[in-house]
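Lab manual, section 2.4: Encoding a predicted structure.

Procedure: take the sequence of the chain (186 residues), apply the prediction step described in section 2.3, and record the output as structure tokens. A sample record is shown.
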Amino acid sequence: MKTLLRPLLLLLLLLPGPARGLLPPGEDEEGQAQELVLLHVVQGHIGAGNYSYLRLNHDGRIVLLMRSLKGDADLYVSDKTLRPSFDTYKLQSTTCGQDLLVVPGDFVRPVGIGIYGHPSYMESEFEMRVFYDQTVALDPFERNLSEDPDGSKKFPQGSEEDFQEEESIFWTILIGLLKIIVEILF
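Recorded output:
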């Protein structure tokens, strides 16, 4: 695996800043991992056109690194369904060979992971490594904030229904107070 990561690390140095966080870390001069902590290694077989499903409960930014040992297994991830597919997913990686996905820390847990056996092969064999990215600090108060590409933070826009509900409560309270004032004065 070390020999596989070395060329990726060279590519990492050539990528712009935001893209660097997508690749697994290398090792420093002492041979110690720099950024990611290995949580799980999952190995399996999947038939052509079939899915295997996994559930991710771990909080934080998670890196999924899957390689097809035989055949071609594809990766689908969703925080809306525990059974993502090529029709319903939020993240996907459908390469022939190594698949890499970064599950953001703000995805609602549990996260569904679908592994699909490509129909070009009768059976696919895969190995997926699940890493925790410890460089991203967890802050529960920033969970609803999003970051613009320029680094500035902005608050998410509420839906129109939420706004109308807040507005309705405001008017209800205001009318109630006005009725009390009118009763007192007259």
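Check your result against the sample. Confidence is low (pLDDT under 50) at residues 1-25, 27-33.
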